[in-house]
Amino acid sequence: MANIKFEIIENIATISEGQKGWKRELNLISWNDRxxxxxxxxxxxxxxxxxxxxxxSKEEIVQLKEILNAMDL
Length: 73
Prior knowledge:
Elements: E1 6-17, E2 23-31, E3 37-43, E4 50-56, H1 58-70
């Protein structure tokens, strides 16, 4: 598998932290020098290793925000 280049443009929020120190974060990330997207995934403390995650465009995150705002939580 080829190396994946990424740059964390903005750390928006930490959602949770696991017992081993990995944090579930919402970040704005540029993958392989492309336009930054919103990204939710687990990271080690040095942002070297990552877990599987979900990447969303601005339009998708706006739609998700509308859905979450409409939910009775």
